[in-house]
C-alpha cells in the first residue's frame, strides 16, 4: 500500500512543476527591468511580493491545492481510493504548512535578488511602461510561488515516514470538497493507475533462480568406462628388429 502511495503519478507530475520555476524567474526579471522605478523601492517590492505570495500561501494553509488534478481538469473526489484520500490528509499537516512558509521565504529571496540585478537587464525593456512591467512581475511572481510551494508540499508528503502514511486517516469525500481547492472540470480519470504487485512476476523469478543441474542419466544407459589396453606391437622383443 505504502509503495503504491509513493508511486502515485499525480505526486510526481506536480513535483516536476519545479521545472517551470526558471521561466517564472525570467518573466519576473523582465517585468522588473522595465523603464525607471515609478515608486520607492519598498513600495514596488512590497506590491509584487504581496500579490505574488499571499494568495498561494493562503491557499496552501487554508484550502490546499487538490493534487489529483492537471490543468483545468480534476479527478472527481467521489472516485478517489482510500490511499489517495490518505495522501490528501497529509497536505493539511503542520509539517507541510511550515514547509510552504519556507518555500515562500525562498521566493522572496529570489525576488530581492531579481530586483537588484534588474537594471543590468533593462536595455531590451526600457521603453515599456513601468506599471505594466510591475503587473507582469507580480503575475510571474505569483506563478513562481505556486510552482515552488506546491512541489515543496508534495516533497514533504513523499518524505513522510511509512508508519505515518499508513496511519493517516482518510478524510470523507465531503470534507475533501470543502477543504481543498479543486480546479476545473471533474472527470473520472486523467492518468493511468500504477498497480504494484507484492510478488515478483514469473519472468523475474526465472531470472533470479539459479540454473537447475542436469538430470542424471538412467543406469541402463550409462556405459562402463573402457579399460586401458596395452599397446600391441608385432614384435615381442626389441632385439627382434635386428634379426
In words, what does this structure look like?
Mean pLDDT is 83; it is low at 199-208 and 237-243. The protein has helices at residues 2-6, 9-15, 21-32, 41-62, 82-90, 94-117, 130-158, 162-167, 173-179, 202-208; strands spanning 69-70, 73-75, 185-187. The chain has one domain (2-6, 17-187). The chain is elongated and about 55 Å long. It is built from ten helices and three strands. Helices cover 53% and strands 3% of the residues. The relative contact order is 0.20. Strands 1-2-3 form a three-stranded mixed sheet, with no helix packed on it. The chain is mostly helical and 243 residues long.
> What proportion strand?
under 5%
The radius of gyration is 35 Å
- Strands side by side in the biggest sheet: 1-2-3
**Mass-distribution shape:** elongated
Report low-confidence residues grouped into runs of 5 or more.
Answer: 199-208, 237-243
Share of helical residues: 40-55%
- What gap, in angstroms, lies between the N and C termini? 97 Å
Please outline the helices and strands.
Blueprint: H1 2-6, H2 9-15, H3 21-32, H4 41-62, E1 69-70, E2 73-75, H5 82-90, H6 94-117, H7 130-158, H8 162-167, H9 173-179, E3 185-187, H10 202-208
Parallel strand pairs: 2-3
Antiparallel strand pairs: 1-2
Provide a quick synopsis of the model.
By secondary structure, the chain is mainly α.
